[in-house]
Write a structure and sequence with these properties.
Structural class: alpha+beta
Radius of gyration: 26 Å
Length: 461
């Protein structure tokens, strides 16, 4: 008996000594370098394939027969009939073709019958529409004016449709001279990981730009991983200690950010950096310096003080960040803002990844949570437990039928989007009120559409 006790004591002592000798201390505040998603995948063998097939991972790709979804088989595009002003406008304004494995969009030269071909260097997106980029001599990746609509199965001038402007051969060229058409100086902040603008000119015709990963990769959400990699690479004591501290004690893992271990503002900044589009133009540099983590110096880790910096001005018509006449978020760029305005966010711990799978972002965090269902109801009832046994009284609808689910009234489809090339609506995330109701303070006022009328279209609210 004594011998057994001695063996146990010796074993515990040995483990303790091993931990003491080999466990490396680490700083809770740090600044690291980016290493790329492939390095992360060497250890995170289960999560990496899940992310690899996600829309985030495949947001930006080299053009080939797997990534190009548009029709480049001698396709043409002609101005819509309503936009044709002269006989030449009835002729193709663009030709799309491939040659020796390379893809081209050729735009008609204004006032002529000739075309100027632009090689496609990158494609962006594929689920709803696809954007095409061509590299200019100054290093700028220029966004070409026609995009492919997956829903419509045709090319279309996205920004003309988004802004309600007239398309013309001249305008297609003008779209390639705007500041924000310099994709790698503007849009790439959210579509790549660790965009590094080393040099540019004021007119956005010159750009010396690098990134760590095409698409939204691991370090876009978890922060730079060099110190994390070095800390765990060959020290198994560090690994065991981190597992104990993370799983049993709820502590952050060394030298990396995990949204579930961050405070609410820091965690939501990870998503809000790109999905919170309603910011002042002057604030974009602050958003550029953001990176998830615990920076000691030089980087912003919390953007939450900027989430509501832009006023909800009624009847705002700026593309993608529109508002209704009562100031209620309307455009797709306001989706994140609608959540921030919700009391569910402000007074509770609602976070994006509660419902959305963060690694394969097209999937739900759990089955049926993204649709009106018992699952999504149960999520809401986690806080609103007093309503669990009074669904009929609260909703005035029988359980399991349209109108009895939280989504039906509190998340109606009133956010407009043109993501697919077709005007559609998606669900507002301002869950704490019913848009267009007396509760919202503006019933039937011409503001945000009344949630009840989405089903009861012939009734009076």
């Amino acid at each position: 008996m004594k011998r057994a006790a001695f063996i146990v004591f010796a074993g515990v002592l040995s483990v303790g000594v091993t931990f003491y000798l080999y466990l490396e201390r680490y700083s809770p505040r740090f600044d690291a370098d980016y290493v790329g998603a492939a390095v992360c995948g060497e250890c995170h063998t289960q999560i990496y394939p899940e992310w690899k097939r996600s829309p985030h991972a495949n947001m930006v790709r080299d053009p080939d027969d797997r990534s190009v979804v548009g029709d480049f088989d001698e396709a043409t595009w002609t101005l819509p009939e309503a936009d044709q002003r002269i006989p030449l406008d009835a002729e193709p304004a663009a030709r799309m073709f491939s040659d020796a494995g390379k893809y081209f969009m050729a735009l008609r030269v204004p006032g002529e019958e000739t075309f100027e071909p632009f090689p496609i260097d990158y494609v962006v997106g594929y689920q709803y529409r696809q954007v095409y980029l061509t590299r200019e001599s100054g290093g700028v990746l220029r966004r070409l004016p026609l995009q492919w609509s997956v829903r419509r199965q045709e090319f279309f001038p996205y920004w003309n449709l988004q802004e309600g402007s007239t398309a013309s051969v001249q305008d297609l060229r003008a779209q390639m001279t705007s500041m924000n058409s310099a994709w790698n100086l503007f849009c790439a902040r959210c579509h790549t990981t660790h965009l590094d603008i080393k040099e540019k000119n004021a007119s956005h015709t010159y750009a010396d730009v690098e990134w760590t990963d095409k698409g939204i990769a691991c370090e876009a959400c978890h922060g730079p991983g060099s110190l994390h990699k070095e800390y765990f690479e060959s020290n198994y004591v560090n690994r065991m200690s981190a597992w104990i501290n993370s799983k049993l004690r709820g502590q952050p893992v060394a030298y990396i950010a995990n949204a579930r271990k961050l405070n609410k503002g820091e965690a939501m900044s990870v998503c809000g950096r790109c999905h919170g589009a309603d910011i002042f133009l002057g604030g974009t540099d602050i958003y550029r310096t953001f990176e998830p983590g615990y920076s000691r110096e030089g980087h912003t880790n919390d953007l939450s003080t900027y989430f509501q910096s832009a006023p909800l001005t009624p009847n705002r018509t700026v593309a993608t960040v529109e508002t209704y006449s009562d100031g209620e978020p309307k455009g797709i760029g306001m989706l994140f803002r609608s959540l921030i305005e919700s009391q569910c966010y402000q007074q509770a711990e609602v976070r994006c990844y509660d419902c959305h799978n963060p690694h394969d972002n097209k999937l739900p965090a759990k089955p049926d949570i993204l649709i009106p269902s018992e699952t999504s109801n149960n999520y809401c009832l986690g806080c609103h437990s007093d309503l669990r046994n009074s669904v009929v009284e609260h909703t005035d609808h029988e359980p399991g039928r349209d109108g009895s689910f939280c989504y039906d009234c509190h998340m109606p489809k009133i956010i407009t989007k043109l993501a697919s090339g077709v005007w559609e609506t998606t669900r507002t995330h301002r869950m704490s009120l019913i848009p267009g109701s007396e509760e919202a303070g503006h019933p039937d006022s011409g503001g945000a559409p009344n949630a009840c009328l989405q089903c009861h279209s012939e009734s009076t609210p």
